[in-house]
Amino acid sequence: MRYTIGLATTFHDPALAIIGPDGEVLFAEATERYLQYKRAPNCEPDSAPRMEGLLKRYIPDGAEVAIATSWGEDFTGFLDQMARAGSLSLEALLKLSPELNRSLVPERTERALIASLHHAQQRAGMGVLLGLDRAYGKANVTGLKRYGHHLSHAAYACWSSPFDNAACLVVDGMGETGASAIFALENGKLREVKRHRGRESIGFYFGLVTDLAGFDQAKGEEWKIMGLAPYGKTDPELMALLRRLYAIEGHKLSFAKADVVQAVAAEILARRPADALDKGWADLARCGQDVFAEMMEALLAETAALVPSENLVMAGGCALNSSFNGKIVGRHGFRTVFVPSAPADDGNAIGAAWLSHAEANPDWRAPKGPLSPYLGSTVSTEPFERMQAWEPRLRKLSADEIAPVTAKLLTEGKLIGWVQGRAEFGPRALGNRSIIADPRPADAKDILNAKVKYREAFRPFAPSILAEHAADWFENYQDAPYMERTLTWKETVRDRVPAVVHEDATGRLQSVTVERNPRYHALISAFHELTGVPVILNTSFNIMGKPILHTAEDAILMFYTSGLDALVIDDWLLVK
């Protein structure tokens, strides 16, 4: 009875996962949800008070517990050496330059991130240990194993995919030796093919563009570049400046030196419009996205040359670029592309745990994917039971009433908070922690942005669509279970759902099936019956700058302090 707890321990997006004796994922969640702190920078994923409850729920008393995390032993040892030499101290940081270096981030910032990474590795597993003491008065822990960062990305992505054989490309901000790596999935086993080396990265490039465009990568605002890009135009001068940051020779992608990076950034800032800090810079967003695609194309070509396959698995933070993901199929020989629900560092909690489980059980193979994303916490409805005494607008419906009643409210133009079952693992709301609306009114997007989300008007909303009808609505339709790619709407249907058609006629869709999410499928089916449209507008249940909700109290607070018209949690309905 050996259970494994996986910890994602980067300086951002910490997460934890619990794996059962058979390798089943029992629980997986990003720490930001529990803390309600966006991206939870420099926070431990396994605080002891939280672990006590999770351990009691998922791991029986007396079971062996293995702990795994996602940065390798050699690299962690190197960080220890840096710390002993004083290179990670505040005094050392003060001596460094705040100017951009060749890694495309300021030199002092880069070292501070490394120092934060070191601290995260030092405390990895302590919360589990203390949580076991709190839960059971003892800790039957077999030890802590550390696995390569990109290997953890690949393990989670490949083993949660539907493939036995595939090429795998990992691209993010940083790893142990570089920011990207190529793996081969062969009969369910992983093999590292090539590891890139160097401090610079496509991930840091996209962060630099985010900052130059008037946003803040430290707040995770890279999303805004993708949303704003379709509103911009290609500026030849901006393109030329951005292309000075990198070069492609054959399959090799290389970056400019520090002086060039600084000069390019200065020239771009000199051209930045005065209102960019308020509205963003659409032309730079467009050019930045286009150059991102050029660099990713080089890595895809290299991946295809080294691991010829019809199947591609993408992982790492750059795999969250849904605009690019939707354009991969049919290029470089890839006929099918899989991106997991949590391709960024939070997914490494599952990846590290699975690597530990596989090492202890060499014959184990992951079950056929795609893995369900509904792996997180449930929401207690006990607050509603208390509210019945004083809230006349609250009622409990039967299980078969929820879908048709909610669908009717959608057709009346209501904005609805929809909370069901277990939370999604990853950054996207997939019908269990969602705000939903009718996609047919042309002003629905503007109303939702202004009344509930409190965010920029250019930010798009996603369509959740019944998978059985999706080919009638999207050109060259691809199954998208995790809202991980954008596709182009067919021209004949765009005016039927204008609220979810972005400026470039795309939508970041979620393919909904009855097997993946029966209640959400029932809701969209009921809306389809009423309207003839098998699509609803779906966005995450949060306001800008906050994580997706974690508790019923979070949902109730947002209901009463925003423009939401109704709140549905399990079988409970609350209306204004």
Task: Describe this entry's structure for a reader.
By secondary structure, the protein is of the alpha/beta class. Helix content is 36%, strand content 18%. It is built from 20 helices and 22 strands. An 8-stranded mixed β-sheet has the order 13-22-21-14-15-20-16-19, with helices on both faces. The chain has a 5-stranded mixed β-sheet with strand order 3-2-1-4-5. α3 (73-84) crosses α5 (107-123) and α9 (222-228) crosses α13 (282-306). The longest helix is centred in the middle third of the chain and has 25 residues, at 282-306.
Outline of this structure?
Residues 140-353 form the Carbamoyltransferase domain. The protein is 36% helix and 18% strand.
Name a few traits of the molecule:
eight-stranded mixed β-sheet, ATPase_NBD, catalytic activity, Carbamoyltransferase, alpha/beta, 576 residues, 36% helix, NodU/CmcH_Carbamoyltrnsfr, five-stranded mixed β-sheet, 18% strand
What is the topological layout?
Elements: E1 2-8, E2 15-19, E3 25-30, H1 31-35, H2 48-58, E4 64-69, H3 73-84, H4 90-94, H5 107-123, H6 126-136, E5 141-146, H7 149-159, E6 166-171, E7 180-186, E8 189-195, H8 202-212, H9 222-228, H10 236-243, E9 246-249, E10 252-255, H11 258-271, H12 276-279, H13 282-306, E11 311-315, H14 322-325, E12 336-338, H15 348-360, H16 382-387, E13 394-396, H17 402-411, E14 416-419, E15 433-437, H18 444-453, E16 462-466, E17 486-488, E18 506-508, E19 510-512, H19 518-531, E20 535-540, H20 552-561, E21 566-569, E22 572-575
Parallel strand pairs: 1-4, 4-5, 6-11, 11-12, 14-21, 16-19
Antiparallel strand pairs: 1-2, 2-3, 6-7, 7-8, 9-10, 13-22, 14-15, 15-20, 16-20, 17-18, 21-22
